[in-house]
Design a protein that fits this description.
By secondary structure, the protein is an alpha/beta fold. It has two domains: 212 residues, Spore Coat Polysaccharide Biosynthesis Protein SpsA, Chain A (Alpha-Beta Complex); 74 residues, no CATH class. It contains seven helices and 24 strands.
């Protein structure tokens, strides 16, 4: 790749509504996957790819991300933060962060979804972008679940023409864009890329957005069930780190195929199977839960699919 290396914006401001109730406690990007927060995994991947100058945008539970990342030095990176109030979306966020990324509208920068788990080749993505002359280049794979994921429509010569269920490909969370793509947007105003800005670019120029198609891996963290299943899968490949800091499990309790976050207590005779348990949760003596996401009820309102059991807020997986 031509030097200097790109800067990257890691999108970590989102509300993570599909991951509730876990995101009542942490930002989605701070959710641990086999013991390591998503954002940490994303940053490690970028640093391994030679990208060390990063900006993270913040809105929802920002302290849970900043506490993990700090100034980035622990990862071998430089990290700065772009604060959003309100949350500005997938296009408004990059617009607001532009002054931290570049002063030249012709510069390219990398945009990475903070919940992305993929091994896409960053050099190959950037090379495709620069050789094509596109305004934006998106990393795609064959859509693994067309019934579940949105699709991307791509021409035979590699140009993206639209987004929708009919698309053969799936966007896996990394893209390269020229700064001028976002510079025309009004700063501080929420805006979306795939649902608003990118279709406008395609209408104005059918060769505005290029596809980088590969066989890169992709792990989904969309829901609590996805979160648990991905944690369990990675625990088999990595050393298992499913039990968080300061967790206390009574010797008579049973914890099977479950992920416990920090400061969790499991009482005598309790049983957890295929569960994910959030920070500070106290599982009472003798309680039995299977296939549940569990957090302290505190003052959280109950959303559809959730219930209160004593001092706990529970959602079945």
């Amino acid at each position: 790749m031509t030097e200097p290396r790109l800067r990257a914006l890691v999108l970590t401001a989102g509300l993570g509504t599909r991951l509730r109730p876990l995101t009542y406690l942490r930002a989605k990007a701070a959710v641990p996957i086999n013991g390591e927060p998503l954002v940490g995994r994303a940053i490690r991947s970028l640093v391994d790819g030679g990208i060390r100058d990063l900006v993270l945008n913040l809105h929802h539970h920002p302290a849970t991300i900043a506490a993990v990342v700090g100034d980035g030095s622990g990862y071998g990176a430089r990290v700065r933060y772009s604060w959003e109030q309100p949350v500005l979306g997938s296009a408004g966020g990059p617009r607001h962060a532009l002054p931290l990324l570049t002063t030249d509208e012709d510069d390219d920068f990398l945009i990475v979804n903070g919940d992305t788990l993929t091994n896409v080749d960053i050099d190959a993505l950037v090379s495709r972008h620069r050789s094509s002359g596109a305004l934006v280049t998106m990393a795609l794979i064959e859509n693994p679940r067309p019934d579940h994921y949105g699709g991307v429509v791509v021409t035979a010569d590699g140009w993206i023409t639209g987004f929708g269920r009919a698309g053969r490909y799936h966007f896996i969370g990394l893209q390269v864009a020229k700064a001028r793509v976002f510079a025309s947007l009004q700063d501080g105003v929420p805006a979306e890329s795939v649902n608003m800005l990118y279709p406008q670019l395609i209408t104005a120029n059918p060769r505005a957005i290029a596809a980088h198609i590969s066989d890169a891996s992709f792990l989904d963290i969309g829901t609590p069930r996805d979160c648990l299943e991905t944690s369990l899968a990675l625990a088999e490949k990595e050393s298992p780190r499913l039990i968080g800091a300061r967790a206390k499990i009574h010797p008579s309790a049973g914890v099977l195929r479950s992920a416990l976050w920090d400061d969790v207590t499991v009482g005598a005779g309790a049983r957890l199977e295929n569960c994910i348990v959030g920070d500070g949760t106290l599982i009472p003596e003798g309680a039995v839960f299977e296939r549940c996401a569990i957090i302290p009820a505190d003052s959280h309102s109950v959303a559809p699919g959730e219930r209160i059991e004593g001092t706990l807020l529970v959602r079945e997986l």
